[in-house]
Design a protein that fits this description.
2 copies of one chain form a homodimer.
Chain A lengths: L24 H29 L5 H27 L4 H18 L5 H22 L5 H11 L4 H15 L2 H27 L1 H7 L10 H21 L5
Helix pairs in contact in A: 1-2, 1-3, 1-4, 1-8, 2-5, 3-7, 4-6, 4-7, 4-9
Organism (chains A, B): Leekyejoonella antrihumi
Pfam family, one (chains A, B): MiaE_2
Protein name (chains A, B): Hydroxylase
């Protein structure tokens, strides 16, 4: 990893791409697929976070979570702008990911304010970690955009503080949230596998099939280990077992 | 009406306020109340428009309406910033208006995509017209802010185009939407009366009790006539009777 060590903190040994690589139709389709998945994810997050915000017990919390949602929408708009720059129809690009992402949100529909916060704290973070790893594989302008839209706008800290308060106030909450956290990570992995199996364009970006680009099997295992470890650390930070 | 004829297009003869008038506690409380009502309205609009967007038949429309909602949230944030500038707690300022505004939205809960669009096209426009008239009564910085947040960000045209398409495609839609439009204006007037009866601080801003500031009875009647006429014109533009 020579020149872009600062923008990619992980020990990934993949060969860096340049903007010129976008001339390669396979690579270009992979980048477009990644942006499409990310954009659709942000759009659905916007709707589900607004829905969760509406269940907030306090007006102040309602507004704080609405603000998180609005940030997601802004990210959506920027990803769509990049897709247009690359000359593709954003709606068509997002469509193949609708089923997996909708199913994920459908299966982890939160039934309370605290479950909604756990989706933000644990669920969004897993997705963010995964996409941030993928950012290492794309051209520099796309990478900057992806890293920028994945930047935490304070929502993780907000959700963590609220969850900590609730766990301290009522000991029985911890068990239920630990269970919910395990469900979030389980459903995330299951939908990620589904996408990996169905979306050749995305997997050809992520997996090195001998071209020297993408993750080899060892790197992929380390990547998932990092994501799982980070999830465990987040749960432990709340005093929960992952 | 001498110096501010450009910022107030209506033939209102109220005496203009200056920023120094904010030293007057009665005037200041009136301005704060107006901003509070407006801010709470924008916040609730954000949630209801997102809810309506979620019922859009096409992803494209879903996004277009979500974008309208995000604009409302931005307006909310700017109104709250002005309330903080004036040294008041935004949540406390909004609280007295929660019941009337919540009731309004509750009574006109749209049950379809087209009803949701009519809320944007007809309902929001009535509220906007009313607040724009009120802007004539406040200090210049507050007036600029109110006028700016009331600026149409394309949502009325978007809703109008969609509604026109639907009416052309299916003649039976017209009758139902005409009925819905009448309900929107009826509920708006009824909640406005409720606020006027309950919120002394706001009415003391709007109504001239002999101080020379605020609308006298004749001006108030003309104001409501203008708002009703504008509503009728909007309905007729869709080929509907108001």
């Amino acid at each position: 990893m020579p020149d872009d060590a600062t923008s990619n903190p992980h020990p990934v040994t993949v060969r860096s791409r340049t903007e010129a690589d976008l001339q390669d139709p396979v690579f270009r389709r992979g980048v477009v697929a990644l942006l499409g998945a990310l954009a659709y994810g942000e759009l659905v997050s916007f709707f589900t976070i607004v829905h969760d915000a509406d269940t907030a017990p306090q007006p102040r919390d309602k507004v704080a979570l609405a603000r998180v949602a609005v940030h997601e929408f802004d990210h959506y708009e920027r990803l769509v702008a990049r897709l247009k720059e690359l000359g593709v129809d954003p709606q068509e690009t997002m469509a193949p990911f609708a089923k997996a992402i909708d199913t994920w949100h459908h299966r982890i529909q939160s039934s309370s304010w605290l479950e909604g916060l756990m989706k933000v704290y644990a669920g969004n973070s897993i997705a963010t970690d995964f996409y941030r790893e993928c950012a290492a594989l794309v051209d520099p302008p796309t990478r900057s955009l992806v890293e920028e839209v994945l930047k935490d706008s304070g929502q993780t800290e907000f959700a963590k503080a609220e969850l900590t308060k609730a766990i301290v106030a009522d000991g029985t909450v911890a068990g239920r949230l630990a269970l919910w956290g395990r469900r979030l990570v389980g459903e995330a992995l299951s939908q990620a596998q589904r996408v990996a199996a169905e979306q050749d364009e995305l997997t050809s970006l992520l997996i090195d099939d001998g071209s020297g680009h993408g993750f080899d099997l060892g790197e992929l295992m380390r990547l998932f280990t990092r994501i799982t470890d980070a999830h465990t650390a987040r749960m432990e930070a709340l005093g929960l077992t992952a």
